[in-house]
Structures are given as C-alpha cells and as structure tokens.
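To close the section, here is one more complete example, presented without commentary so you can practise reading it yourself. The ligand is aspartic acid.
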Amino acid sequence: MISSVLIIYTGGTIGMKEDPTDGTLKPFDFSQIKEEVPELNKFAVRLDSYTFDPLIDSSDVEPSLWVSLAELIHDRYDDYDGFVILHGTDTMAYSASTLSFMLEGLAKPVVFTGSQLPIGVPRTDGKENLISAVEIAAAKDETGHARVPEVCIFFDSKLLRGNRSTKFSAEAFNAFASPNCPPLAQAGINIRYNSDLIRKPVYWDAQLRVQSHLDTRVSILKVHPGMTPQVMRSIVTDPGTRAVILETYGSGNALSKDWFIDILKEACEGGKIILNVTQCQSGTVNMDLYATGASLKQAGVLSGGDITTEAALGKLFCLLGRTEDNKRVKTLLEKDLCGELSK
Ligand code: ASP
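Output:
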C-alpha cells in the first residue's frame, strides 16, 4: 500500500511566489503543490494539503496555532502515515518543541520544514527541504512502522529532533542546529537514519492524545551584566507568572549578589518555578560546579540540564496546563519526557 502524507501550510517564506503583476512575494495556492514542485510526482506517496487561514509570518505564532495544529493532526491521524508542516523559520523551533510535548503517544512522523528563500525563486532551498521532508514523513521500516515517529525539523540535509533544535543562522541555508543531540538522519545520496537515536512509541497502536490546554504564565529572563534588582523583581515576582526560565551563563552561573539570590529565594519559597537554562548553544547546566551556581540551587532554582530555551518554554506550557500542582510540575520538569534532555 502506498504511503500518504498530509502537507500542512501555516505560512512563512517557503510558500511564497513572485506575483508577475507587481513583483511582490505572495503565498501560492498549496492545493497546486505538485505543479509548483513536480518532483513530488515521482514519489509513490499520496499527498494532500491543508492551508491555514490566515497564513502567518511565524513571528506572529501564538499558542492557539499550536492547539489548532495538534488538533488537526489528531483529527486526520488515522488517514495519513505522516505529516509535513510548512512553517516560517523564525519560530519553527518553538513550534516543533511544543508540539512534541502536546502530541502524547505519537507513533507517526511530524516533520517541520521551511526555507530561507521562497519556493518560487530559482535558488530556493525550499524544494529540497520539502521533498526530503515528504520522503521522511512517508518512510517506513522493515516492519511497516514509521521510521521517525517523532516531531522533528528537516532543514538543509539534516533531520533534527524538534525539541532539541534552535535556529542559529538568519542567512545560511544551514539555519538550524541541535548542538546537544546528533541529527536523527542525514540526507545525501540516500537518507541515512540514525536508528539508535530515534525514539519509538511505547505502543505503536496507542490512541494519539493531545494536551491542548497550555498555561502560558511563563517568562524568560536572560541574565546579563548590569541587571537591576527592579527589573529582576518585576519579572520574577510578578503574580501573573507561575514559572520563570532563567537563562544563565555557562554551566548555570549567575550573579552572586545578595539581592539577586534573595529575590530568587523569595520567589521559590512562594511556590514559583525557576528553571535554570544555559545561554550557551551547547552543553549543560551543572549547579554543583561553581559557587555562583550552587547558590542558585540553594535558593530553590531547578536545573534545566541541557534543555533548549525553546523546549523549556513548550514543556512548561504543557506541564502547567496539565496541573495546578507546581510540585508535580517540578518533578516532571527534571525528567526526560520526549527526548528533550540527555540522560
Ligand atoms: N519571518 C519568516 C517566518 O518565520 C521567515 C521565514 O519564513 O523563514 O515566518
């Protein structure tokens, strides 16, 4: 039986084409995708498309779009072997991260891709990205199961785990990296899958469940030289915030000043969740290494290990949406739920 893939277009550069009347870039009609990318006809794959309305620049992404995406995948889950989501690159890592936590029991590929140049311009990277993403979404192993039953990002020949990815170049075709996790696959003459790394579902035939209630009462605070107690206090002790992602230096270090530690301590004692995530692109938080990290731990700050900021945000939105019990959230935060943390 031939595989089937649903291509979901949310917006972004990839779906643009030059309007010959005025030379501007406009989204093209995705139901005509095979006319734009005739190479897709060469696959023995049934392709359908779904276009969001309105199409957005991904800088405008809101959690409500993630809920719509997750529910669409849920509703069409039995009709397709895999899903390709065309998305702007700017927030693709946030969307892929959050979807990985929202889609519980996932046993089919959900492959995000996009491009740096529109699909309708001669040097586009969009065709290559789309064609490989479709091939990966349709791929099955010898037992007939999906090769990559994960939420991932395909970009410039690499398949990355969604919740490990980050956009690191505003210009290069090679725009995404997952510094703390090797690629799940590499596309060359063949697509080479890193099977040992790819996660498998506990049950292949389990029902897909969607965690559709997201609690967005989360702030991100990047520690920097010259930070003031006023700004720090207003973010960390804001009553409208349940959790703060604290982006620290190196292996999880921050100011050792009394006011800084006191504000954190006060917030943690008041039940707030403060998660320590490193500003570095690779490596992990280790609050036992330096005195400046150890004092954060003593104040009640949790270690985010080697999680990305994007994944920390999505994980918190989902966990906070699941329960009002911050203690339970803290326990789950330090656990690897879907490949976002190294053991
Ligand atoms: N601003 C665009 C977006 O993220 C850039 C892109 O599509 O790559 O939607």
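Once you have examined the tokens, check your reading against these statements. Residues 11-13, 57-59, 88-90, 114 surround aspartic acid (CB under 6 Å). The radius of gyration is 21 Å.
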